[in-house]
């Protein structure tokens, strides 16, 4: 059956990948990784590089989840500003969080170069101010980042200069970060998978893992027609985490988000002259960028019910036309969507339970930080906990309401913030 939600530009332009066979036998390994998105692939690759025997289980195909469908926006940091992080956690912890989260771009860049991953990487990210007050806030953040953390790649873009980056949207200035950027996310995921295979990771696609069972000294996982015994397990299943670890599933809710890719645009360079990726500063934001073949890839609007709109392209188009009215009649070649795993406080949820490690809920800021999350889980498996603990010690709450009410209650909260955008 065609998958309406996964009919993406990325799938249509994915680089060649030899499908890996499902697991159908009993296997012993050092580390079992569940989930073949950025988090799981990065963890598996880093574990194998450290000499461990690694098996990765993916229920569908590599990059099937958010990693193969996202906006491709490489946004340094987390959903919180550094001023918020500093105020909440104090300077010492803030510095440790900064080093990992803002340093994630360099690690992703390193992976892309080291493994020669062709994923259309471009530098430059613009956060565009939707309201004048947002621009004031951005200027304070840029000054704080440079003064207190030495992050000086951020440039304040005055309202009068915004058209050096974008012609559309009537934004009130913005922040341009040369260390941000954009890429083709599915090709990055496939590149990581190829690098993982090259260092000996056994990848099994179309293999759904069941709940890991912690036995004395090892963890047992039934998976597809086979099974695994592993010394350590890494759960990297983001929105599906509740299926195999119901308790962890209560820390996130899935928010549906949709993207379109237009036909190649003759005037693409006029719309986005600096070729930066752009995200606006609203709670329910619009985000967009050009693909390598000069399509506009646009994400906008959110849905708090799982069922996709009947016309995904039409649903996103109206947001695109608000920003770029000249594209009202432009052909849309692809429309797709996926779920963003969101935590209560919008910070990633990482931790361990015995020999089972997990990371999920990157809250729309996962394209860069997932690679770091995978790498620090690999270090933790080998007993180096310092970087893992930086993330694992972030405070988290379950969504209230249990299995059935969590989603409607979270929806009410999200609708409130979405409404504030309009005021
Ligand atoms: C539409 C959309 C746009 C986004 N845009 C951006 C953006 O522009 N910038 C940004 O930073 N972030 C963005 N995000 C968020 C980002 O994509 C995610 O944070 C990130 O990809 C999460 O990666 P992951 O590896 O943790 O999870 P996923 O990529 O979702 O991978 C989880 C994998 O686990 C597999 N799985 C699930 N259950 C099992 C099981 N039982 N056994 C085996 N395998 C299983 C799934 O099939 C899936 O492949 C966006 C997300 C969406 C949906």
From TrEMBL:
Enzyme class, broadest EC rank: oxidoreductase
Span of domain FAD dependent oxidoreductase: 30-379
Keywords (A to Z) from UniProt: Oxidoreductase
Keyword Cell membrane among UniProt keywords: no
Gene Ontology MF: a single term: oxidoreductase activity
Record's GO cellular component terms: cytoplasm
Enzyme Commission code: 1.4.3.-
Cross-referenced SUPFAM superfamilies: FAD/NAD(P)-binding domain (SSF51905)
Pfam families in UniProt: DAO
InterPro entries, per the entry: FAD-dep_OxRdtase, FAD/NAD-bd_sf
Protein name: Gamma-glutamylputrescine oxidase
Organism of provenance: Sphingorhabdus rigui
């Amino acid at each position: 059956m065609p998958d309406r939600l996964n009919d993406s530009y990325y799938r249509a332009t994915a680089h060649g990948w030899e499908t890996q066979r499902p697991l159908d036998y009993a296997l012993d390994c050092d580390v079992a990784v569940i989930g073949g998105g950025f988090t799981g692939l990065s963890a598996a690759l880093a574990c194998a590089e450290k000499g461990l025997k690694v098996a990765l289980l993916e229920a569908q195909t590599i990059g099937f989840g958010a990693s193969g469908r996202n906006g491709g926006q490489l946004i340094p940091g987390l959903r919180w500003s550094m001023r918020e992080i500093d105020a909440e956690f104090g300077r010492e912890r803030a510095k440790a969080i900064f080093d990992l989260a803002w340093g994630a771009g360099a690690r992703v860049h390193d992976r892309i170069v080291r493994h020669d991953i062709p994923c259309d990487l471009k530098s430059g990210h613009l956060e565009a101010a939707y309201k004048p007050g947002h621009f004031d806030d951005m200027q304070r953040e840029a000054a704080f980042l440079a003064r207190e953390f030495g992050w000086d790649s951020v440039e304040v873009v005055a309202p009068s200069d915004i058209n050096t980056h974008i012609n559309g949207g009537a934004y009130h200035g913005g922040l341009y970060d040369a260390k941000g950027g954009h890429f083709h996310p599915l090709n990055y995921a496939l590149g990581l998978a190829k690098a993982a295979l090259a260092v000996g990771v056994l990848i099994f696609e179309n293999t759904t893992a069941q709940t890991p069972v912690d036995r004395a000294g090892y963890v047992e996982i039934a998976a597809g027609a086979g099974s695994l015994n592993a010394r350590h397990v890494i759960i990297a299943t983001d929105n599906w985490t509740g299926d195999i670890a119901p308790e962890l599933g209560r820390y996130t809710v899935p928010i549906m988000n949709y993207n379109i890719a237009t036909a190649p645009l003759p005037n693409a360079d006029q719309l986005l002259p600096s070729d930066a990726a752009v995200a606006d500063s609203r709670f329910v934001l619009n985000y967009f960028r050009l693909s390598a073949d000069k399509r506009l890839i646009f994400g906008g609007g959110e849905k708090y019910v799982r069922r996709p709109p009947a016309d995904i392209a039409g649903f996103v188009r109206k947001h695109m036309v608000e920003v770029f009215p000249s594209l009202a009649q432009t052909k849309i070649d692809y429309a797709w969507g996926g779920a963003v795993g969101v935590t209560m406080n919008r910070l990633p949820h990482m931790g361990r339970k015995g020999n089972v490690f997990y990371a999920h809920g990157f809250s729309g800021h996962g394209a860069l930080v997932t690679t770091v999350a995978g790498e620090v889980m690999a270090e933790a498996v080998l007993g180096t906990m310092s970087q893992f603990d930086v993330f694992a010690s972030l405070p988290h709450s379950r969504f209230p309401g249990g299995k059935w009410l969590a989603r409607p209650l979270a929806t009410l909260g999200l609708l409130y913030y979405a409404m504030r955008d309009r005021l």
